[in-house]
Amino acid sequence: MTKAARKMTPKKIHQEGLRLYGQGRMKEALEHFQSALRSKETGEFWNDWAAVQHALGASEQAETGFRKAFELDRSFLQAAANLGVLLVEQNRPVEAAPFLLAALNTADESLREAVERVISNLSKLSDASKMARNE
Fold it and tell me: Which of 3, 52, 81, 93 is the most exposed place for a label (fewest CB within 10 A)?
């Protein structure tokens, strides 16, 4: 990280991390999110750090970060959704369920619709699995 970046507020460092993330510059974004977190821990900072970890294939770190984000701010339902989706990706739907259900309470319509699709797909997979076992 540059000297100029070290003098920025945690919020500005985080915003720069978001810009880098948007450009696909994950390792640089991760450095910025880590720097922001060293200065101030927030659900949003942890969530974005975890999103980069997920993008880099570090699932354990991503899970830890999403959990920390939601623990710090139970109203930050993006973190709950992200954690739920990550757990579904890892074939852990029972663990994912409470986080996905919590995320349904979001006021963000697009997030709610995305979570509803994940839940619907889980339901379809469950139904298909039951039918396969009965045949």
Answer: 3
